[in-house]
Amino acid sequence: MQNFTFNNPTKIVFGKRSISELAKLVHPDEKVLMTYGGGSIKTNGVYDQVKNALKGHRVIEFVGVEPNPEYETCMQAVKEAREEKVDFLLSIGGGSVLDATKFIAAAIPYEGEDPWDIISKGMEGRLRLAVPLGCVLTLPATGSEANGNAVISRKALGQKLAFSSRHVYPRFSILDPETTYSLPERQVINGIVDAYMHVIEQYMTYDVSAPLQDRLAESILLTIIEEGPKVRKDPYNYEARANIMWCATMALNGVIACGVVEDWATHLIGHELTALHGLDHAQTLAILLPAVWKHQRVQKAEKLLNYARRIWGIESDDSETAIDEAIDKTVGFFNSVGMPTRLSDYDLTPAECMKVAEQLHRRGVKLGEHKNIGKKEVEEILLLCA
To answer: pLDDT tier at 128 (50, 70, 90 boundaries)?
Structure first.
């Protein structure tokens, strides 16, 4: 096991009617900027619950955060927050709203000329301050409710980039599974795949003698496989909703990453596909994962065989057959929850996507746990996604 430091300062408040706890979690002297996306929180009752819980607090609202949050939108919120001198940010919605809120929190006190530098120039490590924030989560997927990570797009530059800072961990996150009942099926499917993939990126690398982390990761994968189809079949199954919501949080709160090697190649290639072609984040992951595994099967063989045996019960004596079956089973699971896994399912060809490889190459990015995936390898992976 590798050395690690683990500290997660986010308080999780989980369960039915937990939004009422906001009154205790937000100090009455704090001026709050509430961020959210479209109108869904006003039709599913979440907005009213939040407003009732914060009755008596000073609250202003910023509406319009996109599914892939845009830098320009975030900067509008930064301008408003600075003018209003807010003390606290409250994200209401899914991971996109929360990612935007994290960037807004970092950008408000930022004194540089262009806050985009926080992301593009890797200055997040030099952040010394951010406005405190919390969240009411309505879409389990990204795990952003319990980490310091965020992904922001800048359409004008054709970029979608991630940043991470300990200063933007939510002070608290409220997770009420009942808020997810009204989610569109597409968002439910995306959330299931996204959570699964977060585990995979921390698990499917190579053995570093961390059996506890491996088995924790496997337990999350098995739970998602069991509970994901239940959520799709019965949107009002509270226990299934609760289990998926907690899986998404546990997938990326830092616990299973302790002392292990991580990959994230699928995610980083996927970010470029989203930026260039507008595919949902989870859609890109489901397309790319089988191809990444096929391309990297030699380097990942030991973990792929563990995965085949422990997750899918594959006991074949032929390692190549076992790996092929594990990949097929994973594709089958994605398909079973309604997620396509080929570029052709979105009327795209590998040739149309080759700019992805060029974009990553231009930034000098080497991907994978071995940093062995460059432009040529990304092109080869894309060819496997046809």
So the answer is: confident
Location of each CATH 1.20.1090.10 domain in the chain: 185-383
Q: How many CB atoms lie within 10 A of CB 239?
A: 11
Question: 11-179 has which CATH code?
Answer: 3.40.50.1970
The reported pTM is 0.94
| Residues forming a β-bridge with 88 | 32
Tokens of 300: 């990942």
Residue entry with tokens 């319990």: 146
Class of the CATH domain delimited by 185-383: mainly alpha
Asked whether the predicted pLDDT for residue 123 surpasses 70, the reply is: no
Domain with CATH 3.40.50.1970 in the chain: 11-179
